[in-house]
Amino acid sequence: MNDSDRGAGPAARPKRADARRNEKTLLDAAAAVFVTSGVDAPVRDIAAKAGVGTATIYRHFPTRADLIIAVYRHQVEACAEAGPALLETSATPFTALERWISLFVDFLVTKHGLAAVLRSDDAGFDALHAYFLDRLVPVCTRLLDAAAAAGEIRADIPAIELMRGVGNLCIGAERDPHYDARRLAGLLIAGLRLPR
Amino acid sequence: MNDSDRGAGPAARPKRADARRNEKTLLDAAAAVFVTSGVDAPVRDIAAKAGVGTATIYRHFPTRADLIIAVYRHQVEACAEAGPALLETSATPFTALERWISLFVDFLVTKHGLAAVLRSDDAGFDALHAYFLDRLVPVCTRLLDAAAAAGEIRADIPAIELMRGVGNLCIGAERDPHYDARRLAGLLIAGLRLPR
DNA sequence: GACCATACGGAACGATGTCCCGTTTAGCAA
DNA sequence: TTGCTAAACGGGACATCGTTCCGTATGGTC
């Protein structure tokens, strides 16, 4: 809920011009720093890159999780929307599932440390967990249900468990040439298959 | 190399009696604290539990990884030795592989945070990574080779990659009732199977 | 031009890993 | 037994990081 000012709340007063400018600056700076130093880069680095004080970050984004959410919201939405689309354009529901997981993995492994912080038990990241899960678990559930209904996979694995597993497989995948998260995620999905 | 005094090095002088006593005390204290607070408990807590200063820990165990290794060495050894034994007593190599992975998962999920720190990219844990990998990867390789030779599984997944995947799946498994690392690891292994 | 709520910057605080330095003590020899 | 020295110790010092507080600056408005 840190977009410029879509007035959802009651009597949401418009932000001051400098505040709106700073929020945009911060998002850009955070995105840049995330690329080079990972999502757990020091807050001071982001503030410095944006040319603001550290407190300004916390004023706009109460927790670091809120900042991460704001930075990646567009891509998460795109991933969520790809689910139903894949279900329509793929030969079988299982193929759609495979492709969607591949999208999800690609998203995670290209964001340094995002998978790790997604799994972090650190309190304060609850908002991040909740957002990802709320947005993506229903999509995954639908894909799983479709594949199960078609008799392609077993039906006893909840989507949330599968997604956490895939998320975990992506941890640390970006800097180890001997570790291919995509392949392992593919193995995990393959493990769902029922003998024909 | 933090055992009391097996003199491998050249002219390894024997430790003083109090030093040997403190090392034992530290190991016990660390083991106790690891159980209650996880392997990433503050160093100060361990020192307090042992009734020594923080510097004493670093003197005996240059990095936290060395302390963790020392605490769990016995169990890692047991896991490593179970590999060949399972291969002999199981009906098929694939069954042995399944059982061994199950042992590995059990070991990880019962040690709070061990899987996470095993995957940590934090420098200073290199020794921990190296120890686990050096000790267990050859065992896993042998199991994989045997199963592949029997035509039960595909042969293109390196043991190290599989173990890292399983390790990742175990992250955060101990405190989430909706997450069953054993089941997911089983899925991953099942994904290796070749159609008959 | 003046007012004030809003927003800002940077210092301050608490937690944690790590290192340094002055002090104590185990082991040994006279 | 006594005295010496290297080994070992303890705890405070330092650096880093997340987070909050407070005095100051400024945008929007009358």
Describe the structure.
- Two copies of one chain form a homodimer.
- With 196 residues, the first copy, chain A, is mainly alpha-helical.
- Chain A has helices at 17-37, 43-50, 54-60, 64-89, 93-109, 114-119, 126-149, 159-169, 181-190.
- In chain A, helix 1 (17-37) crosses helix 2.
- Chain A is elongated, with a radius of gyration of 19 Å.
- The first copy, chain A, starts with 16 loop residues before the first helix and ends in a 6-residue tail after the last helix.
- The A-B interface holds A 116, 119, 121, 157-158, 160-162, 164-165, 168-169, 171-172, 175-176, 178-180, 183-184, 186-192, 195 and B 116, 119, 121, 157-158, 160-162, 164-165, 168-169, 171-172, 175-176, 178-180, 183-184, 186-192, 195.
- The first copy, chain A, binds a DNA duplex (30 and 30 nucleotides) through helix 1, helix 2 and helix 3.
How many DSSP helices of chain A?
A: 9
Largest interface: A-B, 29 and 29 residues
Total strand count of chain A, please?
Answer: 0
The profile of the biggest β sheet of chain A is: none
